[in-house]
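Notes from hallway chat w/ T.B., transcribed later so I don't forget. T.B. wanted the structure written out for a chain they're using in a teaching module, and asked if we could keep both sequence and structure tokens in one place. Agreed to drop them here.
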Amino acid sequence: MLSPTSFIVLTLVLLNIALPLWRISLQGYEKISHIDTRRDNQNYSYIGHDHPFYHPTLLLAPASLALQETVHYGYNITYDPDSQKEWDQILDSPDGTGRIHLGPMHRTFVLTFYHQLHCIVELKEALVNRKNTWASPHHVNHCLQYLRQTFLCQASDTLEEGDFMDRNFETERFGPDVECFDWERVYQEVGAQWLLFSEWKKES
């Protein structure tokens, strides 16, 4: 039989093991729950407003992104073909440019994620190419308001050290890590669905 002192020590040891494991499992459950509760099993007609709020099958796991300065996606007043190609790829990849087709009639939707990227590209075009008629004042104003509102909606509470306005971006290249959704999964799924839609369109 354990002495009272041994019993207390053993209890504390077990608690020190059990509590961290419980916290880890709880965090994992919360992440999974957050993903799963964004979806529902309701059947939709995809007519009018009768459609899901989120993509019905795109279950996204958390991912990490290190914010950093980069030589890619340059902002150049003079034409830079390499930089332009990188910006163009944002809208050209994957096939379908963020458009998905859901329901029995393959109704077209676009993911907010891609709409945001589209607006960033249009703002860049408006700054470097005043002759681009697509980046019109009306279009640019729409993009400014759209990005402002969707950023407010996401309201990231990631803590960044210090004052970013005081940083020397030439020498301090890395910012904080941020928790995201797995954007590579979005690219894969949307690209695959576009191929399926393309096959359906050929056969119809």
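Follow-up for T.B.: Residues 82 and 204 are 39 Å apart (CA to CA). Might be a good example for the class.
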